[in-house]
Write a structure and sequence with these properties.
The complex is a heterodimer of chains A (264) and B (618). Chain A has 3 domains: 101 residues, Serine Threonine Protein Phosphatase 5, Tetratricopeptide repeat, CATH 1.25.40.10; 65 residues; 65 residues, SH3 Domains (SH3 type barrels, Roll), CATH 2.30.30.40. In chain A, 59% of the residues lie in helices and 12% in strands. Chain A is globular, with a radius of gyration of 26 Å. Chain B has 618 residues and is an alpha+beta fold. The chains are: A alpha+beta (264), B alpha+beta (618). At the A-B interface, α1, α2, α3, α4 and α5 of A face α2 of B.
């Protein structure tokens, strides 16, 4: 028997075991900050919980549950703007989550943030998230292309009925999903007002107000000028708002409560 | 017969009276709450009395009053029940001593009171606080105003109410420190045979002292004083003084007397002897109620300030005599594991001011969480207060839990005493994985669990769905799907497939609309195949096959051009149609000749023939 084989085989086995264990240990250590955040939340130390969640986001990225839990923390701390921002971002990752929707509705109701009644088409658009509509559209388009290729290649006329029917369905699906995804991506860079502020008629600090906008309301940015952003709210009012008072729904930095950015 | 009617009427009366009483009690349930502050203007070194009165009930649960810049000290509660003319009513009052931190206008926020599961709120009260000594000092060392008294009640001081009774307050000490517990006894004497109703527990008449405790129920006994028998009620309690000075300690109490009044003889209008029955004297106008307030004599107490010299940093206001016991659990841990410290303060003194001992572990080695509020346990034998604090060792080299310090002032020895617990040995387990600096917050409350919270209410009462316990799938950015590479590749592939299929479909349609082209293409394909076969025949030196194939090629070629059946084409057709001297005619003749004669061709000849045929078809 090969002495080399006898002498080193256990070491190789041990090394393999250690290599397996180490990633698990690292993952365990990383997992702790999310659990720590949950425990701090249960301990009613919401500020510490947010800190733990932010650390988790820095190491493991964002998840719907993480953003949702942060939203709950901000809600307890009565920071309505950040609460709604976190919930809306969580919905981007998990569109159909009932918990997120329920809490978002509760917070909006509690703070008197009412949205305009949705038309029927918007109810349809809200069935899926924007990325979900795009995925459906993209997959349908791919299926349509495959079916079309199959029809082009097949020589026998009678065999192409199923691919033809499938191609028609796929094409219809692609076309029908275009409006909601276009609408969704037009509003992809919407923002949440983080503090009660005013809409101004001009992008200057001395400008006259055009109205107040509540903390937690969603605003659609139109254009940027220096540090100000022209936004429109759900009722159609327009006005300039300082960029730092807005938290953008597509902004990861906003989720970590870093200084706001101007619209790209 | 007469006796029967008499008894029936009595029974009827009893039932009616009982029914009326029950109905009246049920109907007399209108709840009203009111808060009043007396006086509404006082100096910053004085105080006022806040009284919360809840009418229509005898039990209520008010929340602690709040107000910016104001401090509130509970002075107890009093309950009053009255039953007059068949109607019963009750009320409960809560008294607080109010002091201001700074001059200015302060507002006592509306106070929430829970009564029978319902919530009531008082109105906000505004008070104006002047700077110290801005208002005239009240007389007799009293601070603030006297609480309002019912105008109809009589105030009877001890010694003045010999017809009814008197009250004494007996403090255990005459000199105490500010904040120190001063035990006292209150004895109320009532002449036996008097019908007396106690409407309130003894209460302090001024705001110089805070009522720390008072027996809920007095001890009843009898005593004979100067040959006169008295009923004696005894309360034990304790007060603490607010500030330095000489102040009177005095209590009063509301009582009601039922004074019997003589009933007038009936007018005998109806001549019925029924109403002359003495039994009815006890129901109709037999007694009248007289409300009085009994007040004790004043006992002057000297209040001293605690000495500033020698006051430890850890002193938080405890005065008395205390002992300290500390337990830790668990004691076998690894770095990062939480340890629960249980600290028990036992002894006698003002436990209301006893706060948790101070943990001396430094921030580099220990992470300490705020201690719990303290659980007070009073028994006949001892009084103790228990605190829990969570601590976490952050280094594996720690071997013991540092001591905790509890400092108090002992009035008997007149000095500050600091109690240090002994260090507790720790056994640290080995750690294999790196220890994260962010350690797990410990569970201080025993009922704390890992389960998600119940949907508790936030400040304004909205219920939130609990947090999620699982992290789920993580993403690096909140980006739209079209920015993701795999989706772009999917769409690109789909586009390529679409273009390909469109090209193929167009070609197919073009071919389907032009049969000549299809035929031509088919022929071209066929000729290519034949040329390949001819090449193979040439290479295998099969003259016969070579020539046959060459003939077919020419037939196919000219059959298409001349639009005649290829098989019908012969050498004569070529001779007739082609120009004179065309090598194709010779080749065609040669193929026919060789087919009949079996003549073999050389490779060179076959190559030459093949070359000519290729040039022709191209």
């Amino acid at each position: 028997m090969n002495p080399f084989h006898l002498r080193f085989k256990p070491h190789i086995l041990l090394s393999a075991i250690l290599l397996l264990i180490f990633p698990i240990s690292v993952a365990q250590a990383e997992k702790d900050t999310f659990m720590l955040g949950n425990q701090a939340y249960m301990h009613k130390d919401f500020t510490a919980a947010i800190t733990y969640y932010q650390q988790t986001a820095a190491t493991r990225g964002l998840s719907a549950s993480l953003l949702y839990n942060m939203g709950n923390c901000y809600a307890r701390l009565e920071k309505t703007g950040l609460t709604i921002l976190a919930y809306e971002q969580a919905l981007r990752l998990d569109h159909g989550n009932a918990d997120i929707r329920s809490n978002l509705q509760t917070i909006r109701k509690k703070n008197g943030i009412y949205q305009q009644d949705k038309p029927w088409w918007q109810w349809l658009f809200d069935l899926l998230g924007t990325n979900q509509w795009l995925l459906l559209s993209g997959c349908s388009f791919f299926i349509f292309s495959c079916c079309l290729l199959l029809i082009a290649v097949l020589e026998k006329p009678g065999v192409g009925r199923i691919p033809k029917a499938l191609a028609i369905c796929a094409l219809l699906t692609t076309l029908l999903t275009l409006p909601p995804l276009v609408y969704g991506y037009l509003h992809w860079q919407d923002a949440v007002v983080l503090t009660k502020t005013r809409l101004m008629i001009s992008p200057f600090a001395e400008a006259d107000p055009a109205g107040a906008i509540k903390e937690g309301q969603v605003a659609h940015p139109l254009k940027t000028y220096n540090d100000y952003i022209l936004v429109t709210d759900f009722s159609g009012r327009k006005g300039w708002v300082p960029g730092k008072e807005l938290g953008f729904l597509d902004d990861f930095e906003a989720a970590l409560k870093k200084p706001g950015r101007s619209k790209k | 017969m007469r006796k029967a009617i008499h008894n029936t009427l009595i029974l009827l009366l009893l039932v009616t009276t009982t029914w009326t009483a029950l109905t009246a009690t049920a109907l007399a349930g209108d709840i009203s709450v009111r808060a009043s502050l007396q006086p509404t203007g006082f100096a910053v070194d004085q105080s006022a009395r806040l009284t919360i009165t809840v009418s229509g009930t005898s039990s209520a649960g008010p929340e602690e009053p709040h107000g910016d810049g104001l401090q509130f000290f509970s002075q107890g509660q009093s309950t009053q029940m009255q039953w007059i003319n068949g109607k019963s009513s009750s009320s409960v009052s809560f008294s607080y001593l109010v002091q201001a931190v700074s001059p200015g206008t302060h507002t006592i926020e509306p106070i929430t009171i829970n009564v029978g599961g319902k919530t009531y709120r008082t109105k906000a009260i505004t008070c104006k606080v002047e700077p110290a000594a801005a208002t005239p000092a009240p007389q007799s060392g009293r601070q603030g105003g006297k609480p309002a008294r019912p105008p109809s009640s009589s105030r009877l001081r001890s010694g003045e109410a010999d017809q009814i009774g008197f009250m004494h307050i007996l403090p255990k000490m005459e000199t105490v420190y500010a904040g120190e517990l001063l035990p006292f006894t209150v004895k109320a004497y009532f002449r036996q045979g008097m019908r007396v109703t106690i409407n309130s527990a003894p209460r302090l008449t001024n705001n110089n002292f805070i009522l720390e405790s008072l027996d809920k129920k007095p001890v009843q006994s009898e005593d004979i004083i100067n040959g006169t028998p008295y009923s004696l009620l005894t309360w034990n309690g304790a007060v603490s003084a607010v500030k330095q000075g000489n102040f009177p300690l005095e209590v009063d109490m509301d009582v009601s007397l039922l004074v019997r009044s003589r009933r007038r003889p009936s007018s005998s209008m109806f001549g019925s002897p029924l109403f002359d029955d003495p039994f009815f004297d006890n129901f109709f106008s037999g007694y009248t109620q007289k409300d009085i307030t009994l007040i004790s004599e004043k006992q002057t107490i000297r209040i001293k300030d605690l000495p500033k010299k020698g006051k430890p940093i850890e002193f938080t206001g405890a005065i008395g005599s205390f002992s300290l016991a500390v337990k830790a659990q668990p004691t076998v841990v690894q770095a990062g594991d939480p340890i629960t410290l249980k600290m028990i303060i036992q002894g006698s003194g003002n436990f209301g001011r006893v706060q948790a001992p101070v943990f001396t572990g430094n921030g580099n080695n220990w992470k300490a969480y705020p201690p719990s509020a303290g659980n007070l346990e009073q028994t006949e034998k001892a009084t103790k207060k228990e605190f829990e604090q969570a601590i976490i060792p952050t280094r594996p080299t720690i071997r013991q839990i540092p001591p905790v310090i509890f400092a108090y002032y002992d009035p008997d020895s007149e000095k500050y005493i600091s109690l240090h617990s002994d260090p507790i040995a720790l056994s640290m387990k080995e750690v294999s994985a790196p220890v994260s600096k962010q350690v797990e917050p410990p569970t201080v409350q025993p009922q704390y669990s890992q389960q998600p919270e119940q949907p508790a209410k936030n400040v304004s009462g909205a219920a939130l769905v609990p947090i999620h316990t699982r992290f789920g799938k993580g993403v690096d950015e909140l980006q739209p799907l079209y920015q993701k590479l795999w989706f772009q590749l999917l769409i690109a592939t789909a586009l390529i497939l679409l273009l390909t299929s469109l090209v193929l479909l167009r070609r197919k349609r073009r071919l389907a609309g032009n049969p000549e082209l299809v035929e031509k293409k088919e022929l071209t394909r066929k000729i290519e195949t034949l040329l390949t076969q001819a090449q193979e025949a040439m290479q295998s030196r099969d003259s016969r096959s070579f020539l046959a194939i060459s003939r077919q090629i020419l037939q196919q070629r000219f059959g298409l051009i001349w639009q005649i059946e290829p098989q019908a084409i012969c050498a004569a057709d070529l001779e007739r149609r082609l120009e004179t001297g065309s090598p194709l005619v010779e080749i065609f003749k040669k193929t026919e000749h060789t087919m009949y004669t079996g003549e073999e061709l050389s490779t060179n000849e076959m190559e030459h023939i093949l070359q000519i045929v290729r040039e022709e078809v191209r």
